[in-house]
Specification:
By secondary structure, the protein is mostly helical. It has one domain. The chain contains 16 helices and 4 strands. It is globular, with a radius of gyration of 20 Å. The relative contact order is 0.24.
Amino acid sequence: MEAEQVQEITHMVVGLGFVLALVFGYVANKTSFCTMGAVSDVVNMGEWGRMRAWLLAIAVAILGTAILEYVGYLDPTKTIYTSSRLPWLAMLVGGLTFGVGMTLASGCGQRTLVRLGGGNLKSVVVFLFLGYSALVTLRGIFGWFRVNVLEADAVTYHFDHLQTLPVLVVGPDNQLGQLMVAVALSLGIMAFVFGSKDFRRSTDNVLAGIVVGLVVVGGWYVTGKLGFLPEHPDTLEPVYLGTNSRLAESMSFVAPLGYTMDLWAYWTDTSTTVTFAIATVFGVVIGSFLYSVFNRTFRWEYFTSPQDMFRHLIGAVLMGFGGVTALGCTIGQGVTGISTLAVGSIIVFFAIVTGAAVTMKVQYYLMMRDA
């Protein structure tokens, strides 16, 4: 294979990532899909509509990802989520921190991008601080603490094989059994989701769950199948083209903001290029913008007070640190990671929800006390 063909495949992966994220952003704006809002609805009002939409996205992603793995379009060993190494302390601390941060910042990473496309100036500030915090957690001063303390070998569990539930249940060699475990879990979640008559009547929530789940599956197919090269012409080794991790990737919205900041800072450096992850950042913003323009919902929003701005700044920094430390956000781990049924992703999901729920309760207590 010639270098030109490698470049064409890379551009295809990046372009399709942008298209998938464009759909994500458009539908997320239309349906008000928000994972922080899902937790808030349950905690504050006992309303499960948006939480069921999130769970539906997870169920669809689990089913689609399992099928991709079974037919050989995605190698489950080639993702950041499924390795035999489980840094459980980093997962817990990162997830809790992210949950606190997204509550203070009025939304997670993907919601920040969606709101940015709708004209929310708060999201510009959150974007910049979240992205910078993610970058210094990946490669800077926060990264030292992450690697040497939270990911130290003393607080890391090592599995004999992949850390996915299907492998743990039926073993690493039983592919059909692994598929059946994933299908059973997916159908079980769907049964719970559609058990609500109110949810079944909510077109927006059903649409959001299905589309977000399918977009995640699409990301796995693009990077894991279309972007996979068995033998790179320069290294003669297998490689996944167009991704930052050099592995298969799908939707995630914390580390990609850090990669975006890095690209902007070193634009003239030929070694920094637009990747699948970076393309998804702009795809979500533009998709949301298109919806808000076509439906005349675009409007400028801004901070209401210095205290409001301060809360968003702190929340953005916590999300950047927490999202990188936990290897993902409410989408990166809460849908994409869980689609692989990795144990670490499940830990992060519950840690994020716990961190957000506790923060909401504290905020409510303080508000009532001041009142």
